[in-house]
Amino acid sequence: IHLNPVYAILQLHPSLSDLNDDIPKKELVPKPADANIKHMKDKMALKNSDQSAVNEEASVSLVYHASSSSASRKYKRSMTAEGQNQIEFGLKPSGYLHFLSSGGRGMADRKDSTLSMQLLLGLPLEERLKKWFCQVKQINRFVALKHLAYGYSEVDLLRVLHSYANLVQGLWVCKSSLLYDGDEAMQRDYILLLFSRRKTICYHQLKCIKLDHHLFKCMMNALAYERKTLGNWKFKESTDYSFIKCYPNIAKEQEKSWFDREKLILDFVRKLGKKIPQIARASLTSKRVKAKTAHKADSFTCMAKGTIDVSAGQTMTDETREHLPKALLEIFNDQKVRSLSSIVRGLREMALFKSSRPKEDPKTRLLVNAAENAVSAPLEDLLSIIHQVTVEIHGVHVLKHAGNPALDPLRNVVINLFQGKEPYAKLLKQEIKQAAQVSLKRDISDSEYTQKAKGHCGSRGQGIRSCIMGVSLSTSLRFLKSHALFN
């Protein structure tokens, strides 16, 4: 491919008639007939003298050497001698093409010098994907993997993918168990878990990692770019929304898979000796905290507020501030009572759901952007917008207005009573009627009370239990689901 032997050489002499092309045409003046005859005689004499000169002067002698001769081998060795940036002349055609397409990187830089597309396509799909993920690229888009699965359907590809890769930000990332063993694999899973929630990971979120510095750098460089000025790592690839739109069920299955493994991963990392940093992901806040009897209310409030670490984000933009209240109203229509972590989860799920729709209008895009930016915004900025549309009751939030102006006055009375009570308190029917009489300056009828109690509270006997029932956030949310305070 690189050196081609020469089998024949043709030696040519220029014709004297070509010299006339260099003579300007203005010099070619017609001459008399006698002059032409004399010129022809002189030309014939000159031709004879030139011919004799050519015959006397021998041409350059060319000697042919076969490619197997010692002279040819000597020149070939000198031409293929090692240099600073020489091509590997022992390459096969596929390797030579890879050298040209990869910008001059030799096959020696690769883990497997025999790896080529021709070799991969000759393997079963399982081995094909395993080699690709482990030796070529750890992060892949589905459209690129379809070319690798030539000869197989998309159904076959998706079936096999689950065994070798996890879905992160809509992209398929090589499973940690294929690259590392034991503690190293679990710690890489923790990193992937963080990236599945957000595109960036702050330095302080990785303090719990117990890896050799070189190994940690190699692991992170394969997944993300380090941004020292911002103090974080950013995922290498942009989110593949096209895959999420085309395969929403698979995206949800993968998200559930991360959720199911979450506790195992966090427990393992927590055992490494340092408290795991909090993550801007509601599902990572489901750890059960036992409240102390003397500080039940304070403990619950701190738990609700301390479950999210969004202080590392950038300042919230004016566009996000403008459209975030609309996004909050939308998620509260689905679930009337939400903790701070539940709000973050709702915003993220809303953004994911709306982004997966085939057609997306500009207004929806603004809501999606506001929801995505809110979960990474500073906690103070996020709370300021949340408090514009909600009221906080012992660590959970409800809308200020339920949408029915006729019921809002009585609703506000119930909210004020709950705020004045302890988290484990009950509201009695008589208390609500007395408070309504003072605040509304009128008596409420039994039918109005029944409508409010049955439609918005879980009643038991003569009392209404407060919405803050459990010792942990998850317990409270389960109670709210079965005994909705606000419908």
What does this structure look like?
With 487 residues, this protein is mainly α. Among the domains are: 117-277, no CATH class; 401-487, Arc Repressor Mutant, subunit A. It has 21 helices and twelve strands. α9 (182-197) packs across α12 (248-270) and α14 crosses α16. The longest helix is centred in the N-terminal third of the chain and has 24 residues, at 33-56. The two termini are 76 Å apart. Mean pLDDT is 71; it is low at 101-114, 275-313 and 455-487.
Summarize the structure.
The protein is mainly alpha-helical and 487 residues long. The chain has helices spanning 33-56, 70-79, 93-101, 117-121, 125-136, 142-148, 154-164, 176-179, 182-197, 213-221, 241-246, 248-270, 296-305, 318-334, 340-355, 362-374, 379-389, 408-420, 429-440, 446-456, 473-482, and strands at 139-140, 165-168, 171-174, 200-202, 224-227, 232-235, 338-339, 390-393, 396-399, 426-428, 459-460, 463-465.
Index terms:
487 residues; mainly alpha; Arc Repressor Mutant, subunit A; 3-stranded antiparallel β-sheet; DNA-directed RNA polymerase
List the helices and strands and how they pair.
Blueprint: H1 33-56, H2 70-79, H3 93-101, H4 117-121, H5 125-136, E1 139-140, H6 142-148, H7 154-164, E2 165-168, E3 171-174, H8 176-179, H9 182-197, E4 200-202, H10 213-221, E5 224-227, E6 232-235, H11 241-246, H12 248-270, H13 296-305, H14 318-334, E7 338-339, H15 340-355, H16 362-374, H17 379-389, E8 390-393, E9 396-399, H18 408-420, E10 426-428, H19 429-440, H20 446-456, E11 459-460, E12 463-465, H21 473-482
Antiparallel strand pairs: 1-3, 2-3, 4-6, 5-6, 7-9, 8-9, 10-12, 11-12
